Amino acid sequence: MDFTFDSEQNDLREAVRGLLERAYSDSEVRRKVAATDPGFDEKTWSRLAEMGLLGLPFAEEHGGMGAGPIEVAIVAEEIGRVIAPEPFIEAVVLAGGLIAAVGTDEQKGELLAGVAEGTSVPAFAHAEIGTRWSTSASSVTATQAGESWTLSGVKEPVPNGARADVLVVSAVVDGGTGLFLVQGDAAGLTRTGYRTHDGTRAANVRFDGTPATLLGTGGDQTAAIERALAEARIAYSHEAIGAMDTALRTTAEYLKTRKQFGVTLNRFQALTFRAADMYVSLELARSTALWASMVQDAGGDVVSAADRARLQTSRAGRHIGKEAIQLHGGIGVTAEYSVGHYTSRLTAIDHLLGDGDFAAARLARTVADRETVDPLGAPYAV
Amino acid sequence: MRLQLSPELEAFREEMRTFFTTQVPQQIRDKVAGHGHVSKEEYVEAQRALNAAGLAVPHWPVEWGGRDWTPLQRHIWREEMQLANVPEPLAFNASMIGPVIAAFGNQEQKERFLAKTANLDIWWCQGFSEPDAGSDLASLRTTAVRDGDDWVVNGQKTWTTLGQHADWIFCLCRTDPTAEKKQRGISLLVFPMDTPGVTLRPIELIDGGFEVNEVFFEDVRVPAENLIGEENRGWDYAKFLLGNERVGIARIGSTKRMLAQAKEHAREITVDGRPLLEDPFMATRIAELENELVALELTALRVVANSADGKPHPASSVLKLRGSELQQAATELLVDIAGPLSVASFAEEGSDVPAWARVATPHYLNYRKVSIYGGSNEVQRTIIAGTILGL
């Protein structure tokens, strides 16, 4: 049991932090980037690729770095620290992760190098209106004719769905949910992108007899989707930790400088105690997120570990996000000041792949099956 | 970053688990599990069983019975002890005065007290809080005035836990009322509870139990050799001692045990034809508490892994704050599961209410104390805001 980062991991953090702090030196830069499509900075994306970060979790033979979940966690946290809008988790961890987990060797060889180089930005088209946080598809269907497949139906919201050059799509097949690849310029594909409240982008993606290629060798991919979602939930937990950390530090700094009634706000215990509670929430969530990445690294039950991290970071994110604004006062609600953007991003993270209540309900279903929870024992450490 | 315990630590954990579940009398552990009244004799028997195996004071210097364990080993030792419902070594002895004497006492005092303290041959109680000195402990007013070879103590202490069992008291007294800072004029004296001039008045708590007392001192003569450390340095020793008090105060193993009991009882109660444990609201409430406890346990592991240099990790205040809240939440859960049975607190023979349900409410009421003692949660928030956030 060891909760410390090794020196290479510390170097990685320092390098990523340096790059992202240069790119987003203040919140106005992010605001400007978020104002125009594709909602992130293509140059920053290229720099992330040059540093090897966009291929971080992929095998070296596919152009990746062969790094583990801890390295992914470090990058995600640094992204959260400046709420960089670059879709690292969406494109690399989730869409890329599915290609790496399910794709044939040929597909991996063809696609992952492009992701790692920053030339290809894939998106996972999975959510459907009328269901939520499911591991299966229900309204988009796949039809086979000989060797070829076509898709029909609507996916929405698809994060970065309009910018993506290739879509990983879940669709109903005989016996479950299959995964497919659809090229951005495919016939019968209509994409309508829009800005989301947190400054990123999502899209309505409509398939109308759209040609698609089977990702992998077919069959029901529900388990692979569940696992990929779990890994992305863990990564989002780390992004949330980074964002909460900055929101708290910004708030503490504000309390020390803002004056009312002739004194700085940190003279009011009603405020400092609430900041202390934010710290408690943050550190408990941080421990859980780090642990979930260690469970993933150790090959333990990543799905349940992700639910635990999701639950803790969801509750903490709401607590810290709301309090950060309240302790600032009116300035916190403005788009001209940074802290409200952090709350907005935390809110988006909370809802993209499942919120705290969702995770709690899943953990509740198995509560009778265990006497106690041992985070260092089965099913987490194997 | 690595999740698994090393094979050595895994073996250590197994060794602790085996010892606690086989070498400490079952009937004492059942009593702890059932939140029943543990008698003085039972505390003594349990601590002597631990001490005989070198497991009562592993955190002391090796010379005096310590084991030179890592913080992580100590954490495992404590958690396994709580999981097995073993009464922990008396905190006043093992965590408080013992380490203070070992660190600041003279050789004669170490030889006189430490072995007996470890073995609970001497039962110590704590003379710190006073009616007008609670969280603001440095305002204490009990005085010790030098008279020849003695100190003469006058004043009053309160919240003296289990003072009714105590043989000796360690007592903070004001020895220099003229000191510029009130912290500077305090000394630490130790003396037997049967010294003439010492009287004890039990205080009944809202659970109907008697665990704290007021202690009054009227011209109590204490030999000068019973001063621990240097005169007027008592505040430093108190801070050292209270730092130790905070270690392990999160009581994660004990809360884990309570949640397991809650599930067991919720299985036995039927609501609308199915077990209460299957009610989605109840199951989610327990799942949330379990998750909070996982988060706390992992934070404790982070803290112990990073406090190898002896200094407490800044996040240790989180452990006290959240640990006490979760202990309280678990006791509240048990009352809620007991439902109407929870009023049968003082039922005796002739009642069919199970024992766990009878003790649920007194335990819940008693546990309001845990967010007050050991540095109240408001003190912890002050520490977090001040020393961590710089506010």
Automatic annotation (TrEMBL), chain A:
Taxonomic superkingdom: Bacteria
Boundaries of every Acyl-CoA dehydrogenase/oxidase N-terminal domain copy: 7-118
Manganese as UniProt keyword: no
Entries under CDD domains matching the protein: ACAD
Entry's Gene Ontology molecular function annotations: acyl-CoA dehydrogenase activity; flavin adenine dinucleotide binding
Pfam families: Acyl-CoA_dh_1, Acyl-CoA_dh_M, Acyl-CoA_dh_N
Keywords of this entry: FAD, Flavoprotein, Oxidoreductase
Acyl-CoA dehydrogenase/oxidase C-terminal domain residues: 224-365
Requisite cofactors: FAD
Acyl-CoA oxidase/dehydrogenase middle domain: residues covered: 123-205
Family: Belongs to the acyl-CoA dehydrogenase family.
Name this polypeptide is given: Acyl-CoA dehydrogenase
TrEMBL record, chain B:
Cellular component terms (Gene Ontology): plasma membrane
Pfam families: Acyl-CoA_dh_1, Acyl-CoA_dh_M, Acyl-CoA_dh_N
Domain Acyl-CoA dehydrogenase/oxidase N-terminal, chain residue ranges per copy: 6-119
Domain Acyl-CoA dehydrogenase/oxidase C-terminal: 232-387
Gene3D superfamilies the UniProt entry points to: Acyl-CoA dehydrogenase/oxidase, N-terminal domain, Butyryl-CoA Dehydrogenase, subunit A, domain 2, Butyryl-CoA Dehydrogenase, subunit A, domain 3
InterPro entries: Acyl-CoA_Oxase/DH_mid-dom, Acyl-CoA_Oxase/DH_mid-dom_sf, AcylCo_DH-like_C, AcylCo_DH/oxidase_C, AcylCoA_DH/ox_N, AcylCoA_DH/ox_N_sf, AcylCoA_DH/oxidase_NM_dom_sf, Mycobact_Acyl-CoA_DH
Coiled coil: none
UniProt keywords, alphabetically: FAD, Flavoprotein, Oxidoreductase
Any one GO molecular-function label of the UniProt entry: flavin adenine dinucleotide binding
Superkingdom field: Bacteria
Record domain Acyl-CoA oxidase/dehydrogenase middle: where: 125-220
SUPFAM superfamilies: Acyl-CoA dehydrogenase C-terminal domain-like (SSF47203), Acyl-CoA dehydrogenase NM domain-like (SSF56645)
The protein's required cofactors: FAD
UniProt record similarity statement: Belongs to the acyl-CoA dehydrogenase family.
Name of the protein in its database record: Acyl-CoA dehydrogenase
